[in-house]
Amino acid sequence: MATGRAPGARLASEPHPPSHAGPVLFAVDLPPVPPLALWELLPHEEATYWRPPGGAAVASAGSVLRVPLRPRGGGRDADRALEELGRSLRRHPPPRELLELPGALVRPGGPSPCGPRLFGGAAFLGRPEGREWAGFGPGEVVLPAWTLEELPDGSRLTLALPPDRDVGQMRRRLREAADLVERLGAGGPGPASGGPFPGVAGRSDLAPEAWRAMVEAGQAAIQAGGLRKIVLARRSEVRFTGPLDPVAVLRRLARSEDEFVFGVRRGDATFLGASPETLMRRDGERLRVEALAGTTRLPAGRGRADRLARAAERLYGSGKDLEEHALVVQGIADALAPFAVHRVLPEWPRVRGLGTLAHLSSEIEVQLREGIGTGALLEVLHPTPAVGGLPRAEALDLIERLEPTERGWYAGPVGWVRPDGGAEIAVGIRSALLRGDTAWLFAGAGIVAASEPDAEYRETGDKLGRLLAALGAEGAAA
Length: 478
Known about the structure:
Helices cover 28% and strands 31% of the residues. The protein is of the alpha+beta class. Residues 1-20 have low confidence and may be disordered.
């Protein structure tokens, strides 16, 4: 693509190779561009998308540096790698070549003083083994080559150059950046992605009888006294008449502002979802964690406030849901106790309405002791009792033995971290894996002694509905 430069022309402000070992960052501000345009302009790059509830969206593509993320046993290694990255990072003003494009499309950007974000996630058990999850690995966060984020009055594109001294590579990357800025400034590929959604060719699910046997086995373990709660999940496979477009699905999910909308693309597969649950939000030593457990369908009716009130009556009157929720709150509070100077636990859960469902929700606030890394917090928080069980080790062992399919990244942590310890991480539920013409959808339910297997099966079906709708497969029969 033409950029107004003679072939082989030298960038007027190419930097000399840095004398340090860390990545180099440049940022330019642009007119408003939908962040998902980055996915479409760089279709062969690994990519991520992140939109918190009511917040600004950000997308990334490519990889300059990876930090392994192992919530089960590798958290402190991740903390050390992030600290080292924070010390080595350098930020430079953008080269004039990026600021002198036709039409004055860009201006120098101001990177966050808190540092760049690394995006990614991890497998629920730290070792995705199913062929469907090829390319995802056990877990990592990535410093992207490109990051495009929404601003109140436009967009910001950040370019990261790798930590080496190869002048030729730096020149090539800066030319790529100039081309990409020009294309983004021209509006990118447009607001619509792809054509109509493909039709449904078939669907297969775990049979209700198999689900019932799995739940009853979990309840037997609870009655035997070694377990208090277990979260069991099932997978639904939906086949389509043509390839799926993850960008179109993410755009559909992002129409609702009440959830974390996320996407992680690796090769020809994308893990995406719309999670209602915060695993952690961290700013300095302040940490917030959400306990989300106890679910019912919103009753039929015209007024949402009335429907939510009736759902609240049902949840507050359900011993099973209150017990399940209390176990999750207590499990999270106990896990964080060694790291906390101060904790604030709500006296009573609130009811959150999300789509067609209502949930019991409690936000736990913690003032952390100094020197606690985000990776160390992930080790003690993931998986919370909302997606694993209590006691954790016993629940995870039984999940591995009972569930017939690999969870992969379903119910694992997904989001971003910063070298300074800041983080925003959701629990990867209400999610699906897309590859070619097939989608694998996941849903789980918390099982306690009072659970009724058929009711829990219906609950998981209700949870699958969010992703089925986003895929245009609402009426797909198993």
